[in-house]
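Researcher: We're teaching a course module on how sequence relates to structure. For the next exercise, students receive a sequence and then see the predicted structure as tokens, so they can try to spot secondary structure elements on their own. Here is the exercise chain.
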Amino acid sequence: MKAVAYLQAGLPIDDPAALVDVDLPQPVPGPRDLLVKVHAVSVNPVDTKVRHRAPVTEPRVLGWDAVGTVDAVGEAVTLFKPGEVVYYAGSINRPGSNAQYQLVDERIVARKPASLDDAQAAALPLTAITAWELLFDRLRIPEGQGEGEVLLVTGAAGGVGSILVQLARKLTALTVVGTASRPETQAWVRELGAHHVIDHSQPLGPQLQALGIEQVQHVASLTHTGSYYSQFIELLAPQGQLALIDDLPSLDAMPLKPKSLSLHWESMFTRSVFQTPDMQAQHDLLTRVAALIDAGTLRTTFGEHYGTINAANLRRAHALIESGKAKGKLVLEGFD
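Model: And here is the predicted structure for the students to work with:
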């Protein structure tokens, strides 16, 4: 089968060897696996991080977002049958979606939203899972609740931010403040439903005060947490919550103590990597997201179509992700 892989970690993305076209054997499903024929994929920051940091001794296929058709199922599969069109984010410890066929555990898969085409749906799984788990599982905001409380979302125009803003606005009573630094990304965040948008390239406190907001109860820090950490501690109300998803070389939690602030990490791969008893929660939440999409409550965070799934196009997509200037999700579709 056709696939795109990296053979050496750490190469700059403008090196043609950073991602290469390869031919690999078609995988065989295990007991709870679906063998999915991949139609479309999207690119996430985790793709670039793994490519830089994870050494390999054999070709490694990246990609943690896909839409495809179930081609075959394992002997213990109960949720799906061949021929169904599904969407999912996969597991970080298994070969990724940048291949014609991929194995994925049925418990982290759902049927594709019927109202979206493959490219539009491929933009959603990883970011929807991350945003949903951050909001409802880590911060534990009950649906329909949060009136009088403020959620500050930094990096709100990115993939996770684009769906988190929608979930918080549509499914809770929180006041949602998103951050973005460019006119086009600020407009995007407003369009997604944020009550207010401020510029994260400027001090956050004065901008919030200008909106009449002295303190916030919840912060979702989606990028460059280290740059804003001291501001978050200042802005958070006593007993507030800080949730983050990015990677930091270290983090001093002691400044959180005086206000009894709580710290929450979100990694959407935890359930699949550790095979947690509640692993099927990701199937359930993706099923719910699909229903919300089809009902018109949520919208896809599709940003730009980058062509067919091949090494050259994926290198271009990685380059834009690494630039930090992507708006919404970058999607590739089909194989040459």
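Model: If you want an answer key for the exercise: Residues 10 and 98 are 19 Å apart (CA to CA). The two ends are 12 Å apart (CA to CA).
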